[in-house]
Design brief:
This protein is mainly β. It is built from 4 helices and 52 strands. A hairpin with a 2-residue loop joins strand 40 and strand 41.
Length: 676
């Protein structure tokens, strides 16, 4: 029962631990792996160091599992071993060196399962002192030297340095503890050499002390170059120089070369001697060199030759200093005689290029007309085979200024400052422009760039603008005038008016209203109509006339209000008219309708009143008839006379509905009707 529980527990834990392997025969787990460095992680050079890799592995069964150990230094494998025991793996580092410094860790691998230990850093301190050795201590000039620098007992990647004083002669990186260098000394005398090295342990490096110092003696060879120049004194331009380059104390002619140079120019070369001849020139430095090369040895002999010139380098001048196209000019070429060996008559002057349009008047003087374009001239002076050139003189003929063009810059506004532009199409700079009014000079502007002259003026009358002209001048004898200024003058607006059609008392509903805005000044004019109370204009238009209208169709009472207009032109002065109050009256047909309605109402009232009074009288008659009809006839007869006499002026009219004949009422009505 206990064995079953153990197997069950082991199988379950294998799902959660990567170091556990389960197969049909064997169950194990790598519980831990550690790396330790003995005796310490910090040791001195020469210490015996051991890296111990210890693994704790639990397995089912008595048999020890086979395992593979690997020791790493950084990312590099340094040791691998297979083991079938549970003993620790020991990696020895006997007689440790600085090159063993680094970070170590170990890895165990069982049945494909791997586990790494933590990293431990080993630091080894102390380097051996380098030793420098030379094949001999005395050398001849140019002889090869072999030097060997050794780092005793050191291992790994080592960078060596070979020094003479503070200068590095040779250096190199090798995987050995010694470094060999071959070289030659370029100068004679005593040379002191030493070396040192650096052990590279990425990413660090450790520098050693300096080695022993060795002294080397370099002896000069007796062989020397010899340079001879003839003549040796009083050398003048044109003299022929014979130059000889030879060797002194030549023991054996093997591997020897001679080179003869003048400045940086190689004149000739040879093995044992070199001979060369040239013409002496004062303009060329007389520095000559004879160079001897034998293997890596080079020796030099130099001489400087002073040459007296026969005549100076010519100078070329022009008169006048400024010349205009097609004007006469003179070029003068002059050279100073510097030696008694030369007469002035022997000196010949010419101009280059040969096709120059100038002709020679006297020696060194050339005359002619200036060309229409720039031209380069060079004076050539020659005597006794010596040719000298002057510096190139570029003649730039000036262009006479053309008649300037005059115009207005922007707009010319009456009473306001504006600019007059004056510019010539062609003409050499600088150009002086002068503004004239009539023939009076107002001001002058000097222009040194290709740009116009701008003058600021103010005029008070339109015709005044035609009085302006400008003059252009650029040191030429001619000073052309422009034409008179012809430009439009903008008169500022003034006296704005607002005219209303129809006349104010005649404005009625349904009419078309015309608001005519007019002003004095130069068109085009921009007009704006406003109604008091509105910030935005009712209408805006630009006209080429001094007046225009704004039409308001089909007036209504809502159009009543106060109106004004504004006007502005290129003078940018805004003028405003007087305000006009407009009252829109009723339309004529509305007045007729209202009058007719009033007459109708009066007529109805009159007719009604008449009918009312008549109806009142009829009621009185009816009442009287009713009384008479109720009395006896006798009483009626008795009273008839009194009734008639009492109302002699009253007429009675009654429209009575028909009654049956013979009744008392009928009789009474007939009585009254008869009276009426």
């Amino acid at each position: 029962m206990g064995l079953l529980l153990l197997l069950t527990s082991t199988l379950l834990s294998s799902y959660f631990h990567p170091g556990i392997m389960v197969d049909a025969q064997r169950i194990f787990t790598i519980r831990d792996i550690t790396l330790s460095i003995e005796p310490s992680t910090d040791v001195a050079r020469g210490t015996n160091v051991t890296a111990r890799c210890k693994a704790i592995v639990s397995s089912l069964g008595q048999e020890v599992l086979s395992r593979e150990y690997t020791i790493y230094k950084g990312n590099n494998k340094v040791y691998t071993k297979n083991s079938s025991t549970s003993e620790d793996l020991l990696y020895p580092l006997p007689d440790a060196r600085v090159s063993n410094t680094g970070k170590y860790h170990c890895r165990i691998k069982i049945k494909g399962e791997e586990t790494d230990s933590r990293t431990e850093k080993l630091t080894v301190t102390g380097l051996s002192k380098p030793v420098l050795h030379l094949d001999k201590d005395v050398f001849s000039e140019g002889e090869e030297v072999t030097a060997t620098c050794t780092a005793p007992g050191e291992t790994g990647s080592i960078f060596f340095y070979l020094h003479e004083g503070t200068n590095v002669l040779r250096e190199g990186l090798i995987n050995a503890n010694h470094f060999e260098a071959k070289f030659r000394f370029s100068r004679v005398g005593i040379h002191r050499l030493h070396c040192k090295y650096s052990v590279i342990t990425m990413p660090d490096s450790f520098m050693s002390d300096e080695s022993n110092i060795l002294s080397v003696s370099v002896e000069e060879l007796s062989i020397k170059p010899v340079l001879e120049i003839f003549p040796q004194t009083k050398i003048y331009e044109g003299d022929h120089l014979n130059i000889l380059c030879t060797i002194r104390n030549l023991a054996r002619p093997d591997n020897i070369h001679l080179y003869l140079s003048h400045g940086i120019k190689l004149l000739s070369s040879g093995n044992t001697n070199v001979n060369h001849s040239i013409v002496a020139l004062a303009s060329v430095p007389g520095d000559f060199e004879c160079r001897l090369e034998m293997g890596n040895v080079a020796k030099v002999a130099t001489k400087t030759v002073l040459v007296t010139e026969l005549f100076s380098v010519p100078t070329l001048t022009m008169s006048p200093a400024e010349v205009f196209q097609k004007e006469r000019m003179t070029l003068t070429c002059k050279s100073e005689i510097a030696s008694e060996r030369l007469n002035r008559g022997e000196l010949i002057y010419t101009l280059e290029p040969p096709d120059s349009p100038l002709i020679s008047l006297t020696p060194g003087v050339f005359s002619g007309k200036a060309l229409l374009y720039d031209f380069n001239y060079t004076c050539v002076a020659q005597a006794k085979g010596i040719v000298k050139h002057s510096e190139t003189l570029t003649v730039c003929p000036k262009i006479s200024v053309s008649a300037p063009k005059i115009s207005v810059e922007g707009k010319a506004v009456l009473g306001q400052p504006f600019q007059i532009r004056c510019q010539s199409d062609i003409g050499s700079l600088p150009i002086n422009y002068t503004l004239l009014k009539g023939f009076d000079q107002l001001s002058t502007i000097s222009v040194r760039l290709s740009q116009p002259a701008l003058f600021t003026v103010t005029i008070t009358k339109p015709e005044e603008i035609k009085e302006y002209m400008c003059e252009a001048k650029n040191n030429h004898k001619n000073a052309p005038l422009s034409q008179r200024l012809n430009a439009a003058v903008i008169e500022p607006l003034m006296d704005p008016t607002l005219t209303v059609i129809p006349h104010l008392p005649e404005i009625s509903e349904g009419d078309h209203l015309y608001l005519i805005c007019g002003t004095k000044g130069t068109p085009p004019v921009t007009f704006k109509w406003y109604r008091v109370g509105n910030k935005q204009p009712l209408h805006t238009t630009t006209s080429d006339k001094n007046n225009t209208d704004y039409r308001v169709p089909n007036l209504s009472k809502a159009h009543s209000g106060t109106y004004y207009c504004e006007a502005v032109n290129y003078a940018n002065n805004i003028v405003r008219s007087e305000k006009v109050t407009i009252e829109v009256r009723l339309a004529l047909w509305k007045k007729v309708v209202i009058g007719g309605v009033c007459l109708l109402v009066v007529s109805v009232l009159v007719v009604g009143s008449v009918l009312y009074f008549r109806s009142k009288r009829v009621r009185v008659v009816r009442a009287a008839v009713s009384v008479w009809s109720e009395r006896p006839p006798e009483a009626a007869n008795d009273e008839e006379s009194s009734v008639v006499s009492s109302e002699p002026d009253v007429e009675y009219t009654e429209v009575v509905h028909p009654q049956p004949a013979g009744t008392a009422r009928d009789k009474t009505n007939q009585h009254f009707l008869g009276r009426a």
